[in-house]
Amino acid sequence: MILCITEKPSVGRDIARILGATKPGSGFYEGNGYCVTWTFGHLCTLKEPADYTPAWKAWALSRLPMLPPRFGIKVIPQPSIERQFATIERLIGECDEIVNCGDAGQEGELIQRWVMQKAGCKKPVKRLWISSLTDESIIEGFRNLKPEKDLEPLYMAGLCRSIGDWILGMNATRLYTMKYGARGQVLSVGRVQTPTLAIIVNRQKEIDEFVPKDYWVLRTLYRDVWFTAEGKNFDSEEAAAKVMEEIKDLPLSVTDVTKKTGKEAPPKLFDLTSLQVECNKRFNMSADETLRTIQSLYEQKLTTYPRVDTTYLTDDVYPKCGSILNSLKEFQPLLAQIRGKKLPKSKKVFDNSKVTDHHAIIPTGVHLPGGLSQAEKNVFDTVARRFVAVFFPDCKFEQTTVKAVVGKTKFKVGGKVITDPGWRVVYANQQKTQDDDKTDDSSRVLPPFTVGESGPHTPGLQKKTTQPPKYFTEGTLLKAMETAGSIVDDEDMREALKANGIGRPSTRAAIIEILFKRGYIVRERKSLRATQAGIDLINLIREDLLKSPKLTGIWEGRLRMIERGEYSAQEFIDKQKEMIIEITNAVMCDSSNRRVTAPPAAPAEEKPKKRSRKKAEGE
Q1: In sequence order, what are the residues at sequence separation of 6 or more whose Cβ sits closer than 8 angstroms to the Cβ of residue 523?
Q2: How far apart are CA 271 and CA 584, in angstroms?
Q3: How far apart are CA 593 and CA 375, in angstroms?
Q4: Apex 598 CA angle, 594 and 601, nearest 5
Q5: Strand order in the sheet with 454-455
Q6: 415 forms bridges with which residues in the sheet?
Q7: What is the Cα–Cα distance from 36 to 4, expressed in whole angstroms?
Q8: Contact 201, 530 (CB under 8 A)
Q9: Rounded to an integer, what distance in angstroms lies between the CA atom of residue 375 and that of residue 381?
C-alpha cells in the first residue's frame, strides 16, 4: 500500500478521488492500492521549555538563556490532533511507501516531516511537488514524484527557522518581561516581529520630530504654460521676490527643445507580497485578508500556489498560457487585440534562473464558478488582469523637455504624451486610487515650441511646505519588510533586495497581526501607528541584534542559503545561541529601572500566566 499524506482534508479528498481511493475510513480514504490521509496544518511543534526540564517551567532571570542540547518535537496536545496523529502513525506502520503531499513549500515540508519523524517512519518517502491543485497538475505531479532527499535543504531551512525563532522568542520574551515588564505584563519579543515594530516606530519618530519648513518656487507663465525655475528653491519669500522683480520685464527665450521616445514594459507578475501590496492599495484589504483570499482561490483550483517570492514563470509554463488566456471569459474583448499573433515570450516574464520552487501567481485556466465572495472576485481579477497585461505590447510615449532663460535665470518644463497605450488598455477602465493619482506637470501635453523663440511672460511665486514622511500602510510596510527596511519602487532593485528581506512571504501577514494583537500597533484608517507600548519597547531594546531590520535580513539571507544547500544549518543555530547569550548578558548588566507602558485594554489571557506565556514565547 502507498500512503499519501496531505496537509488538509480537502486536498486529501481531491487526491483520493484522482487515485481511486474512494472508500472512506476514520481520517483517511483507501482503495486502488492507495491510502490517503491528512494533517490539519501543524500536528507537531517544538517542545516547550518545561518539556526539557522542570526548572524551565517558572519564569526566572537566573535560568536564562534556555538552550536545550538537542531540540525535540511533540504532538500538539489537542484531542482532535492527537486522534489524527494516531491514525497517521498506524497507517505509516502498515504501508509500504509514503508520498509526502504537503504544501510545496518550506513550511509544508516541515509540517509533514515532523509528523513522519514523530511517528517513527522508516519507510521510503517520495515528494509530490505541484504549483496548482487542478486535476491535471496533480496527475502530472504523481508522474514526476521527487526523491525525499532532494528536499532535505528545504526541510533544514524550515527547521533552522523554527529553532531560531524558539531560541530568540522563548528567551528574549522571558528576559524582557522579567527585567522590564510591569506586574502581569508580557513583553513579546521575536526574531521578525521586533524589527518590524522598529520599522514602524522609527518612521513614527521621523514624523513626530519633523519640523515643516516653508519654501518658495519661482515660476513663470509663457504661452499658457508654467515654466519652473531650475536650481534650488528659495528659503524666503523676499529672496524669491527679488529675483522675480529682476526678470519680470525681460523676455523669455527658449534655448532647447528635446523630444525623446520611450517605452514602459508591463508590470511584473505577482508574488505574494506584491499582491498584498496591490490589494491593500486598491481594496484596502489587510495583508492577512489577501493571504487568506488567495489561499482560498488556490484551494478552489483557480490560481497557482500563492506563498511565492518570485515574479517570474518557468519556460514550461509558456505552452499553457494561450489556453489560460482563453479561459478568462471577461477578458476576451481585450484579448481580441492580440489574438492571431504569437504570444511574446519576454525574459521579464519567463526566466528559469529566477524561479526556485514555484513560479509567480497566475490563473490556472479553470473557469470561475459562481458563489465567489467579493474579496475573491477582486483578488482573482487583480491576478488575472496582471497575467493578461504581460502579453500586451509596451506602452509607448513621447517625453518633451523645453528649456528657457530669462536674464540669468533658467527655466524648464516637461510634458509626456502616450502615443501607444499598449498594456495600459488592460487597466483603462479601472478607477484610480489616491495612491495612483499624479499631479506632476510632466504628464501634461505641451504646445510646439521652437528654439530661439522669445516673448513676454508673467512670473509668479508658489509657496510650498516640506512634508513629513508618510505613515506606513500595510502595503508599504510589507515592502519595507521585503527589503529589510528600504523603500524601493524600482522592480529590479526590489528583486535584488529580496534575498535579505525579513520574514517570508507566507509569514509577514501573521507578523503584522501579532503586532496588532500584542497592542504594539493600531490602525488609523489605512495608516499604521505605534502605540506607546510599542514605542517604549523599541526604545527599551538597546541591542541592535534584536531590532535591526538589516541584521535580521542577514539571518533571513542565511536561511535562504541553507535552503539552497550553501550554508551550514549547525552554524546558523550556533550563531543564534551566541546571539541570545550576548543579548542576555547585556540586559542583565542594565542597572536602570526602565519599564514599558502596558498595552491598552490588554486581555486577561495575555498576562503572564501559564497559558498566555506559552503563546507569547512561541511567536
Answers
A1: 516, 529
A2: 38
A3: 49
A4: 175
A5: 454-455, 252-264, 395-406, 409-420, 225-229, 214-222, 458-465
A6: 400
A7: 5
A8: yes
A9: 10
Question: Which residues neighbour 445 within 8 Å (Cβ) at sequence distance 6 or greater?
Answer: 415, 417
Residues 36, 30 contacting (CB under 8 angstroms): yes
Q: Using CA atoms in the order 131, 136, 139, 142, what is the torsion angle rounded to 10 degrees?
A: -20
| pLDDT value, residue 132 | 92
C-beta of residue 330 within 8 angstroms of C-beta of residue 387? no
Distance CA 298, CA 97 (A): 28
pLDDT in tens, 502-547: 888 888 999 999 999 999 999 998 999 999 999 999 999 988 888 9
Per-residue pLDDT tens over the stretch 56-102: 999 999 999 999 999 999 999 999 999 999 999 999 999 999 999 99
**Nearest-angstrom CA–CA distance, 211 and 339:** 56
The answer to whether residue 176 is catalytic is no
Grid coordinates standing for 253? 527665450
584: helix, strand or coil: helix
pTM over cut 0.70: yes
Task: Cell numbers for 160, please give them.
Answer: 533552522
Q: How many helices (H) and strands (E) does the chain have?
A: 21, 18
Torsion angle (degrees, nearest 10) of CA 569, 575, 579, 581? 100
Cell of 131: 504549483
Alpha-carbon gap, residue 360 to 307, rounded angstroms: 9
The sign of the torsion formed by the CA atoms of 326, 329, 334, 337 equals positive
- Helix 272-283, helix 287-299: angle, nearest 10: 120
Catalytic residue among 155, 176, 298, 305: 305
Helix (H, G, I), strand (E, B) or coil at 34: strand
Say whether 519 sits in a helix, a strand or coil.
Answer: coil
pLDDT of residue 495: 65
Q: What Å distances lie between residue 97 and 46, 86, 119, 437, 512, CA to CA?
A: 26, 18, 14, 58, 40
Q: What's the length of the chain?
A: 619
Indicate left, alpha or beta for 414 from its phi (over 0: left) and psi (-120 to 50: alpha). Answer: beta
> Cα dist. 268→8, 335, 438, 474, 525 in Å?
31, 18, 21, 20, 29
